[in-house]
Specification:
By secondary structure, the chain is an alpha+beta fold. It has nine helices and 15 strands.
Length: 342
């Protein structure tokens, strides 16, 4: 076993990120400055070289109006020569069991591409997050309103607005001041971007992230309160001096139509904790079932739900469910997960 310094490990991890994701070093350094520590990285080695890794970022999720500990899995990658050999499954299993030991209820992620949804499904992750791309356009004559925009780096205000709007949605992931600071600096690195604070009658009421993508302007996220969507859309078209503009919104956004696409997945980590919250919210549910979880063995066994109480039982049941079956029952709504504005 080769003993490496923390600096050596960090440099190896940064190099792997740069080679496999092709991100520029400025972004990589920013990510590591804000999120990296010894406890949230899991990796495997061969011949003293790090060959596969992932990162777990601590957040909270709004589950049944309860704030529960959740981890966001990101940066999962393996050097090309070691892929298709089970390296990633090994460290994901290790990471999930570590989360279980630390009383974390859920693990969420946003697959790097569409092909990976099926891979993560085999590891117990369930697709529960969808976005859609909409077109904001003028439907009738623009009426003068009191909405204005100003470039801003007010991460604390952004986090408060986000908590009052997006985080109120079931299954949505929290986003604190630190995360917004990261996003604002990330947009500062990129060219042709804007981070705007929204005002109504000079009172701050929201924010907006904008960038040029493939030669076209797109709003990657907007969030506001105490103004109507009609007022907002008129004001934003006037600000950017366009007749229409694309925007990314959660699938549950009802004011505009758009085709839904998958954006994120979630996995139950501590099944007993999750079932207790679910049972408390469904006091009339009476059921006995067995669960099979191939990665987190502590979740295996038979469970009885009665009068809002969950207990492990020796009662036999013909209902044998895997962790995805449980997820399909519990996660019946679409939340918001777009932590890194992808």
């Amino acid at each position: 076993m080769i003993n490496k310094t923390k600096e050596t490990i960090e440099n190896e991890l940064k190099q792997m990120w740069e080679i496999n994701f092709l991100d520029n070093r400025e972004f990589i350094d920013l990510f590591f400055d804000y999120f990296y520590n010894d406890e949230n990285v899991f990796y495997s080695q061969q011949n003293g070289e790090i060959i596969s890794c992932l990162y777990l970022l601590p957040f909270f999720m709004n589950f049944l109006n309860t704030k529960v500990k959740t981890s966001y899995l990101c940066g999962a990658t393996t050097y090309i020569d070691y892929r298709q050999k089970g390296q990633m499954k090994i460290i994901i299993e290790r990471a999930l069991n570590n989360l279980y030991e630390n009383d974390v209820a859920f693990c969420a992620l946003s697959p790097a591409n569409g092909k990976l949804f099926e891979y993560y499904k085999k590891l117990g992750f369930f697709t529960s997050y969808y976005n859609k791309k909409i077109t904001i356009s003028q439907e009738r004559e623009i009426i003068k309103n009191n909405i204005t925009f100003k470039e801003s780096k007010d991460a604390l205000f952004f986090s408060k607005i986000y908590s009052q709007v997006y985080y109120q949605q079931e299954l949505s992931i929290s986003r604190d001041k630190k995360t917004f600071e990261f996003l604002i600096k990330d947009y500062g690195i990129a060219k042709n971007t804007k981070v705007l604070k929204i005002f109504n009658n000079f009172v701050p009421c929201g924010y907006l992230f904008y960038k040029i993508e493939n030669g076209q302007g797109i709003i990657t996220e907007f969030c506001f309160k105490d103004v109507s969507y009609f007022e907002f859309k008129n004001a934003v078209l006037e600000y950017f001096c366009v007749d229409e503009i694309k925007a990314i919104v959660p699938s549950y956004f009802s004011q505009e139509k758009g085709k839904n696409y998958k954006i994120g997945m979630i996995r139950i980590v501590n099944l007993y904790k999750v079932l207790c919250l679910f049972a408390n919210n469904n006091p009339d549910l009476e059921i006995v079932f067995s669960v099979k979880d191939e990665l987190i063995l502590q979740n295996n066994g038979s469970y009885k739900i009665s009068d809002g109480i969950v207990s492990k039982t020796n009662e036999k049941s013909d209902k044998i469910l895997d962790i995805n079956d449980i997820s399909s029952i519990i996660f019946n709504r679409n939340g918001y997960i777009n932590l890194l504005l992808i």
